[in-house]
Amino acid sequence: MKIGFLSLPLTGHLNPMTALARKLQSRGHKIVFIGVPDIEPVVHAADLDFVPFGENEYPPGSIAKRWGPVANLHGLDVLRYTVRELTPGLIKAAFEHLPGKIAVTGVDALILDTAYRLIEIVPMHLGLPYVQIWNILHFDSSGSTPLALYSWPHETSPEALARNVAGLEILGEYGQAVGPIAQSYAERNRLEIDWSNPAATVSRLAVITQTPKEFDFPIPDLPPQFHYAGPFHDNEGREPVPFPWEKLSGKPLIYASMGTLVNGLNNVYGAILEAVGEFPEMQVVLSVGKTFNPGDLGPVPSNTIVVRIAPQIELLKRAALCITHAGLNTALEALAQGVPMVAIPIGYDQPGVAARIAYHGVGEFVEVGNLTARHLSELIAKVIANRNYRDKARWFQKVIAKARGPDLAADIIERVFGERIEPKQGVAAIS
């Protein structure tokens, strides 16, 4: 079977999507990534085929430039800027160029990044089966649990449920930004879609989240095509990252990273550096990202190594603690190594991930608006001193290893596509 992949052109989406693609490729399927030019190096590092679109609208270097302002935002402003300033252009380019590109590739089916909202209208128009993947923390639009954009605790009181429902209203802002673009495309191609139904374009075959069920809040009613899997990790399929391994002293290691996107808040790094300086018995690796200037950090404690990018999984294998922005990939990679966390959620789905870190006892978190070096130092000391956090993280390590997320997702994909795609001449159907 030939399967096409479409992902948002961001590291936190590309890493799990390429991992899943590599798993399917290892099972004998032909895989092709279709995307803007900036993702080509990531796709080729994963040893996958690549077909570009939108070369004129998104020449090389444009994604980092356009997404750059996000680094200095926090809270819901991150999402609002993204849906108003960034997503519409990407959606327009996709609707204009993807149908032709997909036809040229000859794919039998598509796997879509769910956060690449409404891109599913293209395979609907082309009559291709598609599966959607939640690379970020999935959104619960039922109101049973808080939307992932919030760090609210899971509660079942009438007041909490009403709060959850009210919190869903922010999704309407997304619809206002991209809805008219999608509706115009649908009308041009004579697609009848009930736009009053939020689930009208959701895949009826499968929607798969890389979040383990054990790490989620309990959601009582889930659609039949929704599946939990487990983290899509594949350290072998990433671009190599140099690191001064000789500088590691052998002391217990704290790995700290604010991710690759919403990572430009100087006060956050200042609080981290001041806090970790209180632990001379430990060594710290702080990754600040490709766009942040380490020279802007100010004094760096003697126990701290600062790098722009780091081999995250390899460092987590050695870590006693992870200080994180609570991006889903970092959180799951930490848990896959049995490492507890102290989280500082900045935006997007990070507040929801942080709430689950606390709910499941694998760490603590502090809102960025309440962040101080002293409070962060207290949380670090608390998580390190109380072995219950590490014990629970190690329990999740076993859960993740047992789940074998990429294999489970690949099983589901093969089953649902095999049920929908007629075998071509000379090609055996997948059962």
Query: Helical stretch count?
Result: 14
What letter string, H or E per element, gives the SSE order?
A: EHEHEHHEHEHHEEEHEEHEHEHEHHH
The biggest beta sheet reads:
7 strands, parallel
Uncertain residue segments: 422-431
Cα Rg: 21 Å
Return the structural class. alpha/beta
Number of strands: 13
Q: On the 0-100 scale, what is the average pLDDT?
A: 94
* Strand ordering within the main sheet: 3-2-1-4-5-6-7
Helix content: 40-55%
Instruction: Give the strand content.
Output: 5-15%
Q: Which shape, going by the Cα principal axes? A: globular
Distance between the termini: 12 Å
Blueprint (SSEs and pairs):
Layout: E1 2-6, H1 11-26, E2 30-35, H2 40-45, E3 49-52, H3 62-67, H4 76-105, E4 109-113, H5 121-126, E5 130-134, H6 158-167, H7 171-188, E6 207-209, E7 226-228, E8 253-257, H8 266-276, E9 283-287, E10 304-307, H9 312-316, E11 319-324, H10 328-336, E12 341-343, H11 350-359, E13 363-365, H12 373-385, H13 387-403, H14 405-420
Parallel strand pairs: 1-2, 1-4, 2-3, 4-5, 5-6, 6-7, 8-9, 8-11, 9-10, 11-12, 12-13
Structure description:
The structure is a single chain. By secondary structure, this protein is an alpha/beta fold. 40% of the residues lie in helices and 13% in strands. It contains 14 helices and 13 strands. It has helices at residues 11-26, 40-45, 62-67, 76-105, 121-126, 158-167, 171-188, 266-276, 312-316, 328-336, 350-359, 373-385, 387-403, 405-420; strands at residues 2-6, 30-35, 49-52, 109-113, 130-134, 207-209, 226-228, 253-257, 283-287, 304-307, 319-324, 341-343, 363-365. It has a seven-stranded parallel β-sheet, with helices on both faces. It has a six-stranded parallel β-sheet with strand order 10-9-8-11-12-13, sandwiched between helices. Strand 11, helix 10 and strand 12 (341-343) form a beta-alpha-beta unit. The longest helix has 30 residues, at 76-105.
